[in-house]
Amino acid sequence: MHRNRNLDVIRAIWTAGDTKTAVESAINMRDQAVVVDLLNILNLRKTLWTLDLCVILLPTLKDLLTSKYENYVMSACSSLKLLLISFTSLINNTIKIKPTGVDFSREERYKKCSKCYSYLIATRGIVEERQHLMGKLGSTFRELQLLLNQLE
């Protein structure tokens, strides 16, 4: 019942068109099942992903990678893969050059990319450990490892 109530709250925020707040609310509920439900929707709707969502979700994705529930791990892996495919080149190109002068949007993007980079580097150790697993989970982690290796 608790999960349904949480999902109703998230659905109301989501339907109002505020994806970022819906994600933040799901994370703040500290209910991994609700976060995974939301991730599964985001994974199907790739255009909803933004740099802001990456910054918000990466710490939670890292936690989900070590979950005892395989479907949570797979959802986190799918999100991480999508994020890496979509944002690695932006992150790499942005953090290469520290912003100078008064370009607030560039400076904000630099901060977000730096945070994403740090979170992704922190995630790398978990991926390296788990890539030796057998089966689909292991091959998924090996694929993530290849994508993480593209970070400079």
UniProtKB/TrEMBL annotation:
GO biological process: microtubule depolymerization
Gene Ontology molecular function terms on file: microtubule binding
Superkingdom, taxonomy of origin: Eukaryota
Matching Pfam families: Katanin_con80 (PF13925)
Keyword list, A-Z: Cytoplasm, Cytoskeleton
Taxonomic classification: Eukaryota, Metazoa, Echinodermata, Eleutherozoa, Echinozoa
Protein's UniProt keywords contain Nucleotidyltransferase: no
PANTHER family: KATANIN P80 SUBUNIT, KATANIN P80 WD40 REPEAT-CONTAINING SUBUNIT B1
Location of the Katanin p80 subunit C-terminal domain: 2-148
Originating species: Stichopus japonicus
Localisation per UniProt entry: Cytoplasm, Cytoskeleton
GO cellular component: katanin complex
UniProt protein name: Putative katanin p80 WD40 repeat-containing subunit B1
InterPro entries on file: Katanin_C-terminal (IPR028021)
Keyword Cytoplasm attached: yes
